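sanity check this record:

:::
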Amino acid sequence: MKFKTVQEIARLYTNYFQKKGHTIVPSSSLIPKGDPTLLFTTAGMVQFKPLFTGAVELPYTRAASIQKCVRTTDLEVVGKTERHCTFFEMLGNFSFGDYFKKEAIEYALDFSLNQLEIPKDKIWVTIYLDDDEAKKIWMDAGIPEERIVRLGKKDNFWGPAGDSGACGPCSELYLDRGPEKGGPTCGNNPNCKPGCDCDRYLEYWNLVFNQFNQTVSGELLPLKQTGIDTGSGLERVAMLLQEVDSVYDTDELKTIIQKIESLSGFQYNESTKQSFRVITDHSRSVFFSLGDGIFPDRTGRGYVIRRLIRRASLFARKIGIHEPFLYKLVGTLKDLYVARYPELKDKAKDIESILKKEEELFLHTLEVGLEELESLLSHLMANKQTLVTGKEGFRLYSTYGFPREMTKELVEDRGFSFDDKGFEGELEKDRDLSRASWKGKKIQYLTGLSASPELKTEFLGYTESKATGKILYLFVDGKSVNSAKQGEEVVIVLDKTPFYAEGGGQIGDTGYFKKEGFQFQVQDTQKENDTFLHMGMVLKGSISVGDMVEAEIEVERRQNLANHHSGTHLLNGALRRILGTHVTQKGSIVSADYLRFDFSHPKALSPEEIIQIESDVNEAVSANIPVKTEVLDLNQAKESGALSMFDEKYGSLVRVVSMGEKSKEFCGGTHVTNTKEIGFFAIVKEGSPGAGNRRIEAICGESVVSYFLHQFQTLASKIETHNLFAKEAFGDLKEFGITKEVPSPEGLQSIFLKDGKTAVASLRKLRETLETELEEKSSSLFKAKKKLEQQKFQMNPELVDGLLQKAHQFAKGKVVTEVFPSVDAKALKDLADSLKAKEPEILCLFGTTEGESSTLVFMCNKVLNEKGIHCGEMLKETLVMLDGKGGGRPDMAQGGGKKPEFVAKSLEFALSLAKTKLS
């Protein structure tokens, strides 16, 4: 076979299908649009799901794409095998009610033979068990019968992507790599063929013949139109054409490996290949995810990205890299992929910056965390124990930042087991604890010392994020001590510090103290008078009073605190301008994630007032107002018009923070230098903490973009489901469909970039408009659909005969079970009477669902009562599955409950009860 580069294969693919009349559609974001069932885009067809179901009007009937994908289901084996990746590119061609099996098969074979130049005698295919149509097409195309293999549902029935969507039987193309790849077991085995676990036959293209739409409950419904969804892994095709044994030896991935060699000084070989492969793969996943706006976080997609970064850092240590390094691969990655994804060119610098910060954050604690883990495992081995408890695992998580899955992988690699359940319990306990536990000890720590001038701390944090400080006091368990060692919870007092102590609503800084052989994690900073208390854990080494340490705050967290604190000031000013000067601050919390502001006001804010307040703040943010701070005499400050808290005690000198005409307040907190740094501002909640007061919760910066992204993704999913139901029920979307476009992740970013001043207001208005339309049309659709179902039910003379034909036959009688959507109980009883009239010895077990409720109707003639059937008793037993209530006579019973998704299973249970009586 002729060697072809990855880029060449991609170009051949798009050119070929463009000539075959396909629209070449750019890769969608790794954030699946309108699909909350997926964390990431995992297949080429994800962006086309609405087109397969017929839920939207078709912009084209045939398409092709090269889709970037992330899958992390087999994360632990990445690096250990030749072909597992978390990031990959999927070649795909698609048909939406246009061509079907014949053309899909012919295109795949033609492209394989004439573009990829694969020898025809090396191609094998598999088909679904009963797909004789596909078999005939393959044979007509020239593939002999002996190279066509039938496989079952596990191998040859695909989909959907996520919990719902298009799916169907499939046919796969395999390349015969020769008997030598079969190993000692299959090398000379004439019965070896596709489906075998050996490496001789390698699948490189999957053709899915979409015929069904799977609902979230697992029901397969015929699609309004058949479709084609194909997928061919670009890396895998390259591996075959370049005749190498691993995707990591293909030209593009090899380039990344060569860059890692130059960074580490290690060579890629048998002993180092796992580390090189993990770093190569994870760097791609992180690079593309950051490019699509998926940032490291504590939950969801962001958690997965953080885990990939940290896993790569661990494997980097095995090849001598002990510093941030993934960000150094960004330039190589950009050069490799910018031809296929030109948008990455302008994002590379931001990706590099975010990645470096995240690596630095983890590396603060990685080394001492690994030492702690090694010590723990040595202790367990010495005591002949094999279980790492949840408590031990949680300590690695909470103190050293080790994700649970990473700890589990590390200990299992060493032959130990991990207590997942115990970890979850520790996590739950931790959620119940409050930082107040630190604060409660504050007085105890300072007993007898608070009046000492030696305890005064000089605060440098308004201008510095790092500083060298001398340790004045150490407190362990509430007692002043001369030294502290690894593993102890300690409170440290320095002579000077960049750490802000909680006050004025702003929570305390976190970060690290370091010196050679010593590391201390600051988990909170509190203050008593002029004494700053740095509360946390000694991670490494020991420390003594009088020692000098380097104190460094978590800069990104401080910036987020500054954004939210300055946003609080602008909010206060906006409230007074829009609601009136009666508004006074009653309290606030400023965290890195959000702000909360309590103020005096007699009634709830209207939607119009919320938009006005947001717009006022965002106008100030966009105005690039310099933030001015000055220290004034108390009376001078009051005369300047600066706002102050009425119950706050101030000294003779006060710090005043001004933001042009928008805000002027007494404040000791940390702030941005220019309002533009805040980015964006959005109110996420408004309520009342008590009579006469209101409470606003709001967010600033990139959190606003993420907030609206989540809002619109959820809304898009609801609209997609609604449109699907509308089309299924009435064949089109004219009366009940919602056709307004929901902004994509890229669209949202462009809206914010275009005009941050108006973005929040316009997006809020758009969201509310769509929500109102969805609510109104959903209500109309529900009523119309229910009416339609009732008409179909009542006007169907063949229904009785159809039910009788599929009734369960037992020795003493028949049982018919059926679930009907949106049918009332009276109609079910009428149907049961019709069945009883035709078949005296029949038991009818009917169910119906509507919204979140469910109804069961059980009926039979008295002849079955004499054989042991009691409808009322059977119903009571069955309704337990639905959290329901009901009852009735031996010959008729009715009840209702919740859990509509369990109605079918509840009828199966009732059938089993009847079987014991009638068999």
Observations:
- The chain has six domains: 6-244, 257-415, 454-553, 558-700, 706-791, 795-918.
- The two ends are 65 Å apart (CA to CA).
- The first strand starts at residue 23 and ends at 24.
- Residues 6-244 form a domain with the BirA Bifunctional Protein; domain 2 fold (CATH 3.30.930.10).
